[in-house]
Design brief:
InterPro entries: ABC-2_transporter, ABC2_TM, ABC2_TM_bact-type, ABC_2_transport. Pfam families: ABC2_membrane. Belongs to the ABC-2 integral membrane protein family. It is built from ten helices and no strands. With 263 residues, it is mainly alpha-helical. The chain has one domain. Helix 6 packs antiparallel against helix 7 and helix 9 crosses helix 10.
Length: 263
């Protein structure tokens, strides 16, 4: 009888955690719609960046690489939107910690884990919406799907897979005392990554000493996975490497988030 009661309590606890996480995710999604910085970095900036790449650099890069540049531009911009959007929401999280909103949430009855879990769910939803928009714009600019519908759906989920680990890292940085400054400084690495990845130009066109770094960095493996799913090419290894990056970042920075919320 005791075992049955414990099992029922565990099931109720899990259901409550899921429900509270969804509430926090919905709250964030509604609030982000009113925050210009997040909307700009998640939707407007990536759209303008994709148009600029395609209109200005398409002919030159297509001639030098031997394949349609839009096949690399769309994954590149989708991954960039994933990261910049997470950085913007990280700044928002730091503001919540500074103005005491997180302390008020912690004072309420409920799961503390629902707060970071809900934020991760909101990040996944934001990333999925931005990726759908960019794929549609890419189709208008000439992107063609050479694989089946399931592969395209898989391509939509690659940025979602990456954002779990990346958003975990951003959340951990944002919860530190100098969170806002650290998040802003981290954006410099994303800017560098925008020009040193496999979506901008083929890896073999970079200097030899840079090629291993460019090939293995998280933006490149996610771009390769999306391009393989959309246009054909290697898929298994790029998806595996993307998952490894995401899991690794989650493990490394997840503990820091738990310690920050306990404080």
């Amino acid at each position: 009888m005791t075992t049955t009661t414990q099992q029922n309590d565990t099931a109720t606890t899990h259901a409550s955690l899921v429900g509270q996480s969804l509430i926090h995710a919905g709250r964030l999604l509604r609030r982000w719609q009113r925050e210009p910085e997040i909307m700009v970095q998640s939707l407007i900036f990536p759209t303008v960046l994709l148009l600029m790449y395609q209109l200005v650099l398409s002919r030159f890069l297509s001639a030098s690489s031997g394949r349609a540049s839009i096949e690399g531009f769309v994954p590149l911009v989708a991954v960039t939107a994933t990261m910049f959007g997470a950085m913007a929401s990280g700044t928002s999280l730091h503001a919540e910690a500074e103005n005491g909103l997180l302390d008020r949430w912690r004072a309420l009855p409920g799961h503390r884990a629902a707060i970071p879990a809900g934020r991760l769910l909101a990040e996944c939803a934001r990333t999925l919406g931005a990726t759908v928009l960019l794929l549609l714009i890419g189709a208008l600019l000439g992107l063609r799907w050479h694989t089946g519908l399931l592969s395209v759906l898989g391509a939509l989920l690659v940025p979602v897979l990456l954002v779990v680990g990346f958003a975990t890292m951003v959340m951990a940085l944002a919860m530190s005392r100098a969170g806002a400054k650290i998040v802003e400084l981290s954006s410099i690495l994303i800017l560098l990554g925008m020009f040193f990845n496999s979506g901008f130009v083929p890896v073999d066109q970079y200097p030899g000493f840079l090629q291993p770094v460019v090939r293995a960095q998280p933006m490149s493996v996610a771009i390769d996975a999306m391009r393989g799913l959309i246009s054909g090419g290697p898929v298994a290894l790029p998806v595996l490497y993307t998952a490894l990056w995401s899991v690794g970042l989650t493990i490394v920075f997840g503990g820091q988030i738990i310690r920050s919320f306990r404080k």
